[in-house]
Structure formats: structure tokens, C-alpha cells
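re: ur question from yesterday

yeah so i grabbed the chain u mentioned. its 369 aa long if i counted rite. heres the sequnce exactly as i have it in my notes:
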Amino acid sequence: MGAIAVALGAVAAGTAAWVAREIPAAMGGDPTRGERGERMRNSPRYRDGVFHNPPSAVRAHETPAGRTIVRELLFGKELRHPSQPIPLVRDVTAEGPASQTLAVTWLGHSTTLVEIEGARVLFDPVWSERCSPTQSVGPRRMHRPPLEIAELPPIDVVVISHDHYDHLDMHSVQEIAAEQPDVRFLVPLGVGAHLERWGIERYRFAELDWEQEARIGELRVVCTSAHHFSGRGFANNGTLWSSWAIIGAEHRVFYSGDSGYFDGFRETGAAYGPFDLSLVQIGAYSEHWQDIHMTPEEGVSTHLDVRAGLMVPVHWGTFVLGLHDWSEPVERLCVDADERGARIAVPRPGERVEVADPPKLDHWWRAVV
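ran it thru and got these C-alpha cells back, copy pasting raw so excuse formatting
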């Protein structure tokens, strides 16, 4: 028994040491130093040591005590997990060139692969089991990724909306960078400090403020506004958050990132639209934090504001990050989109959609509830 106790103690100590190393690394780097810090301080959105949302967009609401939210998460009656496995599709292969027109594959949560005019853009890649600074605790996936990172086709650019753990995953970033040495990363201002902490060479990424853009081959990639917040540790808003516009010669894509609904989307539509495709956040909303996450109905409004043709919803169905039923966001989306004449496609994780010829809506999630 003594030997067993010693062995268990050694395992526990080793696990604790590993977690102690993992968490500080996952929290990322300090963005305030050097040239990066100077760029941040010169941003119109930065003052008093943090980034700020547009003041005209702030909506007053009452935030409940943390224990109230925890109680609702733990004991609420909503069906936050499906009763059956979520169906996965493996439409993406590493063989063959990217579409010369426009196609999209939702890989779960906000991780989305876009093929546009021969290039591939990967948004917010999260392959880890948990969106957390440690894989020991935290929100856990409700379905496996439909394919592994090693099975991805060649990616031209990885685009990050902000540094929350369900959008910026250390392990995924490191593995993609190792698997694909030619891939570039585009991130909002300050987020490059995290990439540097994780060993991504400076020449492989660019950091943009709102309305700044980068060229990836023949594509213009524009960092556009959002109404959200950031943070990977105990302090918030030390790095910028954003939506993104991908502009090709013939096709355009809008990605909302995480955001509350605000008039900045209409401005983005006027400046960079119309878009052929919108990828819009519809999940993890609540009356308790309505200024940082849209409802499905506000997601439809965003899609219409940016003047997009087809909407594919994201930020739902993979992690439990809200207080609603797991399939409620997409049910509400379907009702509102139908009432307002918005075209939507709701693919299964891993299902590839040709934007010019989207599949008929089949409400696949209803068989999973």
C-alpha cells in the first residue's frame, strides 16, 4: 500500500507540475512591451491601458452576481447537451485545389474553413477538447472535430477574431504552425504577443487595428469592428477584438467574430459589402450579457446589415457557453430568417457548402435533441 501511495503521489505531483507549466503558457504573452505596445497606445480604441468598444454602441443591462450565473449553468432546466451524438461529415480532404469560386466548411463552434478564389482561409481554429487554459478543466466539446489538424488541406492564412480560449487555442495554433510552415496568421492588435509566446516567428503573423488590412495573395483581408471584449487571465481588454472582411476579385466573405449587435456592422456593409457569405455568431447569448453576444435574431440583422447573400451560423453546437438549450440558437435562427427572407445554410460539422448552391435546410439537429 505504501508503494501504491508513493506512486499515486508521484503521478499527482507530475500532473500538478504539468498544469503549472501549461496554464501560464496558455495565458499568452505581454502585449504592452516594445513596438507592439506603442502601436496599441496609438490606437484610437486604446486608452487607460485597455481597449474600448465604440461608446455609441454600449447598451445598459444589469449583470447578475457570478453565483447566479453558475447556479443557472449547473441547475437550469435547459437541455444544454444533446441526447444523441452530433453527426459529423468528412467533406474536406487534403487532396485537390481550393475552390476557384466560394465554398465554406463549418468545423464546429467558430472554426470555419473558407475556400475563396483558389485560397483557403481558416477562422478561429480550436481543436482542443476543452476551451480553457488547461485541458484538465473547463468547457468540453460536445462532438469531436470532423477531421484532425494533420488532415487539413494547405491553408493560406489563419484569421483570429480575439484571444478568448474558444477562439484562440494555443495547442491548435502550435500544431497548425508546425504542420504547415507556410501558413500566415492575421490577428487583432496585441494578440501577436500570445503567438510569440507560443513560438510563432514574427514574420509569420501580422497584427491589425480596425480598418487596417493585409494582402494574402490576391485577397484583401480587412480587420473590421466588433462589440466584445478580450482576455485570457485575470485582466480584460488588453488586446483588441474584431470581425473580418475577406475580399477577392469576385467574392466577399464577412465573419462577425464574437459581438453584441451594434451599428458598426451596417458601416462595415457600406464600406466593404455586399458580401456573398456571412459567418455570424448566434450562440452563447443571454440577457445578462447582451452587449457582447448576439441573439440569433440579431445575427440575422447583422447578416442583413452587411448585405450578405448566404448566412452560415457559427458559435453554437460545440461548447456549452450559455444558458440556453444547445439547439435553441439554430431553431430561433430558422424562424427569424424565414420571416425576414434571409437565406441560410446550417451544415453539420465538417459539411462543405458551395455558396452558390447551398443545400436545402433539413433541420438535422432535431434528430439529435
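noticed a couple things. Residues 1-18, 60-66 have pLDDT under 50 and may be disordered. also The longest helix spans residues 2-27.
anyway ttyl
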